[in-house]
Description:
Blueprint: H1 2-24, E1 27-28, E2 32-34, E3 38-40, E4 44-54, E5 64-66, E6 68-75, E7 84-89, E8 96-100, H2 114-122, E9 132-138, E10 143-145, E11 151-160, E12 164-168, E13 171-176, E14 189-193, E15 197-200, E16 203-208, E17 215-218, E18 228-233, E19 247-255, E20 260-263, E21 273-276, E22 279-284, H3 286-290, E23 298-307, E24 313-314, E25 323-326
Parallel strand pairs: 3-15, 12-16
Antiparallel strand pairs: 1-4, 2-4, 4-11, 5-10, 6-9, 6-13, 7-8, 7-11, 8-9, 12-15, 13-14, 17-18, 18-22, 19-20, 19-23, 21-22, 23-24, 23-25
Amino acid sequence: MKKLLKNIKLVLFFAGLVLVVFLANCGLTPLTIEVPSVVNANEVATFILNCGTEPRIANTDPPYTSKLIVGFMVPKSWKAAQNTTVELISSEKGNSTLVLIPSAEKEAASGLAWPDAAKKRFGIGPNLLDDFEWLVYRSVPAYTFINNEDIKFKVKISSKVGSENSFSRLGFFILSAKENLRPEDTDYTKYAFSNNFSVTNGEGDLVDYVNPQLAKVEPVKSLDNDFISLNFDAGIIETTLSNTDEIFLEARGFTKSGQQIAITTKVDKTRLKPLGGKKYRIDIWPRGLLNVPQNETLDRFEYYFTNAAGNAKVGYGNTADPFRYTFKCP
């Protein structure tokens, strides 16, 4: 008898567990995205998010009602908050325009502003350079779903891309506003990052957010009178400098008037500091490093990394071409 009662309790426990799982399975279908591979600078790009709902609600429970939230991650240079529209397209629920959530509003699960909460949850995906922002939009109407009301819908994002040439992977998410960005949630939150997305025919040097880079400048944008850091990673691939820790900077600046100023001396102010793991760094003040005249302004500069003798040199992509950096307002 005791064994029978124990078995009955086990059956009821697992039946209850199945019921809980069934009731929890009231969410969104997997998210797929349609993103063009190339767009010209300053043009409007269109991104389509395909999703759907799968409400599984007990007959004793009220219908599920919530607003829709959509997130969009792009380079900060796009200034996308001023140049983006987000639309819901649904034959069952009707079409509507989503609005940008105010920056002062906090996401309930994290206590952070929505863009910060999105970045904490999703990061920057497969990108390596972090100069992105998340923009988060919410529907004006709330939508009500009854049990088994499975529907498909689209979200259309139209955004004017930035003026600079870039290579990145964009981020997207859709969620139920009722659930917020709970870290453990996979039913009510769906996200995806795009394949490679290029902005071409724009201004300045290509900003490659995706690929491992021998050299990286921080910050991504600065003026010639700002302090910047040049980072060199000799461990990504084999280079002519892979077997030495004595690494120096050679640089040549170009002023707006067309003057060129170079520095090739191997001294303390051009020496890179080893950081370990074949990584090196040098912090410079471009105007001071190149001794730029007061009446001149640097437009851009080119640089190499070399050894102490100057007979081994590494440039862009491990070639003889220099790394390039164009000064622009942050």
